[in-house]
Structures are given as structure tokens and as C-alpha cells.
Amino acid sequence: MLETIGYKVLVNRFKNRIFSYALYMVKNRMEAEDISQEVLIRLWKNMGKFKIPAAGSWIMRTTHNLCIDYLRKEQISRQRSIFVDEDFEERIADKNKLNQPEVTALQKITGEKIKTAIQKLPENLKSVFVLYEIEGFKYKEISEVLDMPLNSVKVYILRARKKLQEELKDYAVY
Amino acid sequence: MQYIKNKMDEETLRKIIAAAYKDADWADRLKIYFLAKRDAEVKRIFNEYKTTAEVIRNIPLERMPDSVINSIKLESGKENFFALRPAFMVAVSLVVVTIAIAVILFQNKKNDPVYTKAEIELAEEQVKVSLAIVNKIFKKTENLMREEVFPKRVGEPIHKSLTIINDVLTGG
Fold it and tell me: Is B84 in contact with A33 (Cβ distance < 8 A)?
């Protein structure tokens, strides 16, 4: 009973993070769904084997490992086409309810391009960047999830930001 | 980034980026703020990163499709993870019943009366008067027994009886 309730709480809390991370990593909605499903099944099977406060790290580590396994197995990370999220523009527009149309348009374009540019980042930079900037994890949590030193996390984030900015220069959105 | 490297050192660039993403400390933020006021190039770089950071901050998480969760209960073969509603209802029912029983028990329990000081003093006075009356009656009864009942009603007949017996025995 308690295990089931704990499971449901964790699923509700992390489901979108799991799916987002998988989607950014594998760049394919169907594969991201499969990975998410596998994470949730593994979570159920392993309930009770970890403490609930540490569940976030466990879940994201499992998600990351499954993404890496998938990318290695299929060797598709660079061949896959970039997913295009049709609703993305609308969601960005909702979040930026600005009165100036030109500003809104700029935000829309920039948001979509940035999302695409994030997906083009190398895997090691992208995993750190998505966890930190998109999913809101702390340096220490990312260090635990990806099993890398804290300083490396900071360095990777800086590199990812630079790389991203470099990519965006081509779009000349500023 | 070659154009940047030519103009400023890596540490300054790191601080500009951190300030733009709002995770630099206050000292660095101030430093970059004043630097950007003096140097147009620093300001331009800072603004570029800042715009990117603001848009990134507004990128929402992708929503996991419900079909992913729904398919888990079919595939897992274990218990139905999301059939929590009946279990939840049982738990809620238990809580409600427990509260109802507690309320009934609490209401049935007689409350201890609370008296004022004046009422207590009055009661004590009444008890004293009552005891005095009882005491008076006891004393009256004792006197009556001692003076009337024992000598006249008990003593005299016994004395008479003993006299008669004595007469019979002595042959008088």
C-alpha cells in the first residue's frame, strides 16, 4: 500500500523530467516514450531498494543510462533528425505574454531555435545542460546522477553555454 | 568563440556568462555590471547570453504522454499501480469512521461540573448546618435513651421481673 503510494508520488513528480530528458537525449519521441516506460517499470521493481529522498538521483541516473545504452546500441545520436515540437511555439507564447508583438515573435523564434540547438550539443554537454537548465537539478545532484566530479559538472555547463551560444550565432536572432 | 578570446580572458568570459545566467555571486555580478557600462563589447556579449538564458528558463518540460503510464499496468503484470482510487477510498473511509466514533465517544462522556467559589462555600455551609442538625438529633436521641428509655422502659421491667423471680425462689 505505502509502496504503491510512494511509487505514484514519484511518478507524478518525475514523469515529465524523465520524458524531457529522454527526448532531448535520443531526439525521438517514440524512443523517448519507450525509455520512459522502461524507467517507470524499473522504478516499480526497485521500490524499497532506495530511500525516497534519493529517488530523484536514482530515477535520473536510470534514465540517463537507458538513453546512453540506446544511443550506443542504435548509433543514431548524430543521424536522427531533430524532433520538432509542434506545440512548442504556443507554449512559449503562453509563457511570454508580452504586449509587444515583435518581442513575442523574437521569443518564439529564439525558443524553438534554442531547443534545436540544445539537441545538437554533444551528449556529455547536453546531459549536464538539460539536467541543470531545463530540469532544474543542482550541481551536486547532477554530479550524483551522472557520477562525475562536481567541478566537471560546472565546466561542462560552461562549455555547453558557450557551445549553445556559438550555435545560435548562426540564427542571428539578436 | 575565437572573436571573444581575442578580446578578453576566459575568466572574464566565464563571469559574464555566469552573470547572464544569474548564477554568479554578487561580487562578480557587480563587476560585470560596471564592466559592461564601460565596455560595449562586454555589454553585447552579456546581453546575448542573457537573452538566451531567459528563453531557456521559459522552456517547459515535455509532458509525458498518458499512454506511457497507462501501458505500464498492462505490461508489468504486477499489481495495478494506478488503481489507487479504491485503496484511497478505503483509507479515507477508515479515517472518517474513526473520527465519527471519536466524536460520539467524546460527546457521550459527561463533563465534569465546574463550580464557582461562592457555590462551594455555600455547599460547605449547608453541609455544616446539616451535620449540626444530625448531631443535635443524635444527642437528643442519646439523652432520651439514657434518661427515659433505659431507666423506665427497660430498667424497671427488668427490675420487676428479677424481684418476682427472687420472691418465687425465696418462697416469700
Answer: no
Given a contact cutoff of 8 angstroms between Cβ atoms, the answer to whether B61 and A20 are in contact is: yes
What value does the mean pLDDT take over residues B66-71? 85
Q: Which chain A residues are Cβ-neighbours of B17 within 8 angstroms?
A: 158, 161-162
Question: A-B interface: how many C-beta pairs under 8 angstroms?
Answer: 100
Instruction: Give the global pTM.
Output: 0.60
Amino acid letter, residue B148: E
What is the mean pLDDT of the segment spanning A104-123? 75
Q: Is A89 exposed, middle or buried (CB count within 10 Å of its CB: 0-12, 13-18, 19+)? A: middle
- Angle (nearest 5°) at CA B42 between B37 and B46: 100
Q: Chain B partners of A159 at a C-beta cutoff of 8 Å?
A: none
Residue environment code for B61-80, b if the CB has 16+ CB neighbours within 10 A, otherwise e: bbebeeebbebbeeeeeeee
Instruction: Provide the 3-class DSSP secondary structure of residue B31.
Output: helix
